[in-house]
Amino acid sequence: AEKTGVCRDFAHLAISLCRAMNIPARYCSGYLGDIGVPDAGFDDFCAWFEVYLDGNWYTFDARYNVPRIGRVLMVRGNDASDVAMITSFGAYELSGFRVWSLELADGEGNDALLEQLSVRPHPQHRGLGAQPSLSPCGEGVNRLI
Predict the structure, then answer these.
(1) Are 41 and 18 within 8 A, CB to CB?
(2) CA atoms within 13 A on the CB side of 108
(3) For residue 72, how many other CB atoms are within 10 A of its CB?
(4) Which of 19, 36, 49, 77 would give a disulfide with 83, using CB separation of 3.0 to 4.6 Å?
(5) Does 51 score more than 70 pLDDT?
(6) pLDDT tens digits along 55-113
(7) In 3D, which of 52, 55, 47, 62 has the Cα closest to residue 13?
(8) Alpha-carbon distance 80 to 88, whole Å?
(9) Domain locations in the chain?
(10) 83, 15 contact by CB (below 8 A)
């Protein structure tokens, strides 16, 4: 055995151990910003897991095992194959991608930023030349801060 793995592997192992003890657990994946220690590197795609205890879901990271700031949740499911972030058919080439996360100090300016982050374009306005209209994200939407 190589005794190596990536965050997805560690999350799957931890989920399996939890489920073996009848503890509900689910796979999560997204981006881990460059805030905090240990340094995850720029644009770090990351996997972690959540465990259901006493009526609440709690986040755990089998890779780092320390609280992190800037986690951006993209998908949740039973395992990685259940919630692939990208499924492609045929050849493709990603020419660029960036994710930024910023730590904001508590202050008055955060309310305006949260208001801006609480709206998103309607999916039907994706065509060329269409003017996007905005709709509230609703409760439970993960925010970047």
Answers:
(1) no
(2) 0
(3) 15
(4) 77
(5) yes
(6) 999 999 888 767 777 788 889 999 998 888 777 788 888 787 666 666 777 666 677 77
(7) 62
(8) 15
(9) 1-103, 110-139
(10) no
pLDDT of residue 37: 56
Which of these, 111, 120, 117, lies nearest to 143 by C-alpha position?
Answer: 117
- Tokens 């609280």, residue? 67
Which pTM value belongs to this model? Answer: 0.64
Listing DSSP states for 59-121 in one string gives EE-TTT-S--EEEEEEEEESSTTTT-S----S---------------SSTHHHHHHHHHTEEE
List the structure tokens of 77. 């499911």
Q: Which CATH number fits domain 1-103: 3.40.190.10, 3.40.1740.10, 3.10.620.30, 3.40.50.300?
A: 3.10.620.30
- Strands of the sheet containing 25-35, edge to edge, are 56-60, 44-53, 25-35, 69-77
Both structure tokens of 16: 């399996």
Paired tokens of 118:
């609480």
pLDDT confidence of residue 119: 66
Across the range 15-28, mean pLDDT stands at 97
